[in-house]
Amino acid sequence: MKFTVNQIAGLIHGTVDGNGADIISEFGKIEEGKSGAISFLANPKYEAFLYESKATAVIISNDLKLKKKPLATLIRVENPYLAFTILLQKYQEMIAYVETGIQEPSYIDPSATLGENIYIGTFTSVKQNAQIGSGTQIMNNVSIGKNVQIGENCVIYPGVIIYSDTKIGNHCTIHANAVIGSDGFGFAPQPDGTFTTIPQLGNVVIEDHVSIGANTTIDRATMGSTKIGKGSKIDNLVQIAHNVEIGQNTAIAAQVGISGSSKIGNHCLLGGQVGVAGHLIIADHTIVTAQSGVTKTVKTPGQTLGGTPASPNVDYLKRNALIRQLPDLFEKINQTMNLSN
């Protein structure tokens, strides 16, 4: 990687403040920047590092008013975080090596349909009537069940298991050891205290441009489909139960658990370790902060919720502040009571 600051500024539509001929050869964090590296400043908490950083160039906001002159050449843009992301994507595209062909040993059922320029790694199994779109890369040790449909230009990483009848759109990424389409947790209690298994006859439908993290599980529906909407991003170690529906462009962080038949709206954000009870609806543009528990339907769009049970985040923070004061209040009450006695 060797580019001038001017070349990089052109890629991200930035304005150079400094020496545009400087050479960039690597990426780096602003607090760890060194000569030849390019970094970015998006969080005001890190502004102090801007003036100390030895990085050759730093991407900053058009609106940032400098307290003093940094050592680095600056590239000013509208949105530094987005600009740096675009830069990383461009570089990844340049260095990406796309493999093609079917590696041996692997098993491809004769009834499976394979698109052009696909790659299938060793020890992968593709069962009856499966369909794999052109340009898709399926790494080693992947299991693809009967009647599975995978669109074009997808990447399926090692160890992924995709159960029968799953439908995956175009440009999707599924990271290592994710399980798509396993049985939902359906058991009917009997009078004698035992459980009878409820057959899970539905499937999972994943729309275009979805990313699914490592070790995430998405259960098939009892009837109908568990659905993941277009453009949604799901982190590692997430559990999505049967018949859940997730809207478009929703982001779900690690260790979230969503119970059966709940519906998450479009453009929602669920922080790490959030729990969502079953059969709820969460309105569009809802943010649920980390470790919160959603126990009731959220009807009003655009709220930020926190705590358990989840409530408007301002109320949750107020309650927490009061709780922290309880020991002092308790001590004052005791002192008052002792004085009165």
From TrEMBL:
Residues 24-89 form the UDP-3-O-[3-hydroxymyristoyl] glucosamine N-acyltransferase non-repeat region domain. GO terms for molecular function: N-acyltransferase activity; UDP-3-O-[(3R)-3-hydroxyacyl]-glucosamine N-acyltransferase activity. The active site is at residue 242. One of its GO terms (cellular component) is membrane. Keywords: Acyltransferase, Lipid A biosynthesis, Lipid biosynthesis, Lipid metabolism, Repeat, Transferase. Its EC number is 2.3.1.191. SUPFAM superfamilies: Trimeric LpxA-like enzymes (SSF51161). The keyword Protease does not apply. Pathway: Bacterial outer membrane biogenesis; LPS lipid A biosynthesis. Catalyzes the N-acylation of UDP-3-O-acylglucosamine using 3-hydroxyacyl-ACP as the acyl donor. Is involved in the biosynthesis of lipid A, a phosphorylated glycolipid that anchors the lipopolysaccharide to the outer membrane of the cell. Belongs to the transferase hexapeptide repeat family. LpxD subfamily. Homotrimer. HAMAP family: LpxD. This is UDP-3-O-acylglucosamine N-acyltransferase. It comes from Aquirufa rosea. The lineage of its organism: Bacteria, Pseudomonadati, Bacteroidota, Cytophagia, Cytophagales.
